[in-house]
Amino acid sequence: MAITATRIKLPSALKSELEKLARRSGETTHAVMVRALSEHVAAAKRYRGSLDDAARADVAMQESGAGYAMQDVHAYVAAKVRGERSKRPSPVKWRK
Fold first, then answer.
1. What is the pLDDT of residue 40?
2. Does residue 58 register a pLDDT over 80?
3. CA 3 from centre of chain
4. Average pLDDT for residues 54-64, to the nearest whole number?
5. For the whole model, what pTM was predicted?
6. What is the pLDDT of residue 95?
7. How far is the C-alpha of 74 from the C-alpha of 83, rounded, in Å?
8. pLDDT band at 13 (very low <50, low <70, confident <90, very high)
9. Which of 5, 61, 62, 75 has its CA 20 to 30 A from that of 21?
């Protein structure tokens, strides 16, 4: 992995908090910042991927005219959260 130097100006309070975190974790302040930035980038990628998946699902639903009834999906998810076995909802035609 290539390393590129960069400069960042931080508010004093944030830099102080980063230094405290670094001391508590036995890391350098640099390592804490790199890890935080890496985690943020990974989360942003996951979020973007979720949005892209949702957009593709919407296109497929619009093209097929089929989807899932909201109350069926909510009941299915609620049962799963409670640890109960539940039959997956069946798609329904919402457009003829």
1. 98
2. yes
3. 27
4. 94
5. 0.69
6. 77
7. 14
8. very high
9. 5
Whether 66 and 89 have beta carbons less than 8 Å apart is answered as no
Both tokens of residue 41?
């980038």
- Give me 55's structure tokens: 């957009």
Q: What is the mean pLDDT of residues 45-55?
A: 98
Q: At what angle do helices 12-25 and 29-64 cross, to 10 degrees?
A: 100
Counting Cα atoms < 13 Å in the Cβ hemisphere of 33 gives 14
Cβ 59 vs Cβ 30: under 8 Å:
no
Answer yes or no: are the C-beta atoms of 59 and 48 closer than 8 Å: no
DSSP symbols for the chain: -----------HHHHHHHHHHHHHHT--HHHHHHHHHHHHHHHHHHHHHHHHHHHHHHHHHHHH-EE--HHHHHHHHHHHHTT---PPPPPEE---
